Sequence to fold (600 residues):
Amino acid sequence: MLNVLVVGSIALDDVEAPAGSAKSVLGGAACYFAVASSFFAPVRAVGVAGNDFPQEHLDFLEGRGIDVAGIHRADGPTFRWGGRYHESLNRRDTLFTELGVFEDFEPKLPEAYRDSELVFLANIHPSLQLSVLEQATNPHFAAMDTMDFWIEGTSEELRRTIARVNCLIINDEEAQQLTGESNLVRAADWIRALGPETVVIKRGEHGALLFDAEGIFAAPAFPLREVRDPTGAGDSFAGGFMGALAREDHRDPQAVRRAVIYGSVLASFCVERFSLDRFRNLEGAEVDARFEEFRALTRF
Amino acid sequence: MLNVLVVGSIALDDVEAPAGSAKSVLGGAACYFAVASSFFAPVRAVGVAGNDFPQEHLDFLEGRGIDVAGIHRADGPTFRWGGRYHESLNRRDTLFTELGVFEDFEPKLPEAYRDSELVFLANIHPSLQLSVLEQATNPHFAAMDTMDFWIEGTSEELRRTIARVNCLIINDEEAQQLTGESNLVRAADWIRALGPETVVIKRGEHGALLFDAEGIFAAPAFPLREVRDPTGAGDSFAGGFMGALAREDHRDPQAVRRAVIYGSVLASFCVERFSLDRFRNLEGAEVDARFEEFRALTRF
Fold:
């Protein structure tokens, strides 16, 4: 089994959704990723939290076996994000973004993290993502996410960083924006030509598409009777995906496809409750059971 | 092997899409359905064409082995539809709808069609759909489609017709509109409670979801590098689905799931060219090969 490093945001979120609302709850890409990944492999987290960040959240991460030595406590407010979901849940409005201590985040890998084997660069400035890669001495497999803000504003740096990772995990709309291709197969071709041999395009409630040397693999999203809060689904997907790859310790096409399904499993649990709450009492047996449900869902 | 009856529109379409345009080309739900279905089973078509409808289109249908005795030639113009697709292809504007002879369409089954075994009621007035069911003496399996216009304007008649079929095949947005449920699992529950034991929700480029007593089955759309014209994809899906069911002559859960994949195969070929052009030289071996590609696309 390999270990997994994640670098990204740690946040306190306000979320409004048709099913209810939550105020000042644990959020941030690094948290969703780390907890999802922790169901499969040892995880190390790098991020910054303000002095208002409740200790209980760090205790929760540590309770999941996550190494939080890389989470820096800075003097100032924690990154706060607020969003409101529409009835359909596939659209949301950002109500506020208060960067706080995240504004000056410069990821530093603790010495003990430098030998990390799987590396996930969550959505931060592409030059910071690159600096993490340069601090890692010998990553087996590096993946990254990004967002519209960096695609628009830092496209040169972003391309340089993408060229250095093994895998880009990105939303469909962002893939289209990045590549100028509305067709996702051509968008994935474009990205793979830049460097990453593996591309995962996330499509929210429609699942995910994997593109690699073997071809294309389509994973549905798990059909749920109730989705309460879609926040963090993409990062939980990435966490489950990378965690499953770390647990298997090999990356042949079938292992990568199983990892896509494990990512989909973790994303499906994530959205059942607000914040990371569903992960608090999630059992490994439930993860395995839903993986098998994915077989029934797709077998013909 | 069973036979398949389709009742629906016969049209001449004008289509504008990013990849090109086509004027006054063969279209209509009954034509797409019948030709897709003809790759699997004997098909009988009921519809109305105007006196401007080119004989070559009827010759094409007959050349595919389709029984066109139920296609009535009326005095007046053929139904004409014009649409323009956006760059993303999942949105389109209707440019015009000229019903012509389709306005007074009252489907009459020729005597020889009354014993039809599989029946597909394409998108027409729900009372006309019901009248077809009442003319069929002993259908083994009846399925139907509908659209927003009937959901809004004839909701009582529509519910009565839905209650009489075995299977509703419907778009995601229309399923949400019909049921008032934004969640598709709950929407399918609602529809199944009305009568149909099987529900297929079509999601365009995102594939299709099947709901039946066995559970849920998710089929992706086949990822194509180029989609030229999405017109008729849904009807081609329904044609492939019903045709495959007719060919197998049983409807256990695995047969129904394979049929969903065959529907997806035919829809994927449909959109590769304008109008029904891709079907003109499509070989059975290509259909089988793409079915196998669907296995590779979904296997883990």
